[in-house]
Amino acid sequence: MDKSLSEILESGLIESYLMGLCSESERAEFEYYLDAFPEVRKAYSEYELSIEKMAIENAELPPESIKQALLSKIQSTENHTNTNLRSSNSVFKWIAGALALLLVGGVFWMYSSITKFKTLQQEHQALIEDCENQRNRTLEPMAQLELIKHHETQTVVLNGSSFNNDAEVIVFWNPNYEYGLLDIESLPKIDDKSCYQIWADKDGKMISRGVFDYTNQFIKIDYLEDAESLNITIEPKGGKDHPTVERLVANGLIT
After folding, report:
1. From CA 185, how far away is CA 215, in angstroms rounded?
2. CA-based nearest residue to 197, from 245, 162, 154, 165
3. Which residues contact 149 (CB under 8 A, 6 or more apart)?
4. Bridge partners of 205?
5. Quick one: how far is CA 233 from the chain centroid?
6. At what angle do helices 24-36 and 38-57 cross, to 10 degrees?
7. Residues 6 or more apart from 154 whose CB is under 8 A from it?
8. Thinking of the domain 154-253, which architecture would CATH place it in?
9. What does the alpha-carbon distance between residue 224 and residue 202 come to, in Å, rounded to a whole number?
10. Which of 29, 39, 94, 99 is exposed most, by the fewest CB atoms within 10 A?
11. Any idea where the domains of the chain sit in the sequence?
């Protein structure tokens, strides 16, 4: 029983305990946490109140068939009481039948409430994940804009002529970031078995900075300190560990 507080709260033990779905070992474990952590007791109380509130707000009458069965049972008992002096035995039977029907109705209501509670939990979690995804999609372009506008960002233009096409690519290069941004202006089309690979030239050695396909989005490439130039080649899908010089399509100096 060495879980952290956050692991306890996220494990689902609270809900399982509250709904009576725990095994004996899980029940003992959770009751230990209830005694050991005030935060767990508080979370348990809040869940309990939430379920009670939800049950009241979403209470549903048992199905009409249960109601009709109960009325029939009552009517049958009343008729029998008028014609039979041993009414006490009939009353006991009526009570037993009524309790059975009420129990069925109660089980139906509880099952319906638990199902709605689980559905609300799933919808809430989906909403949290959607908000997080929206936030991440917003943060990425903001970070890219910050790099582009940074006062130390250098704009490196890579161009060349290959396959009778003029190639032009712009790279935003900044020593304060671990990556650069590549913006394709024009590149020759390549087949599905090939990819583009960008290389940084440092001390006469070509070092791969990443592979990419044609896109109209910014592409992140790895930054390399003291690189002298950037070069793009066409390579087999997945890239290579050294450039195919005869398939160089664009290059530019870093000043």
Report:
1. 10
2. 245
3. none
4. 202
5. 37
6. 110
7. 172, 173, 174, 254, 255
8. Sandwich (2.60)
9. 8
10. 99
11. 5-57, 64-147, 154-253
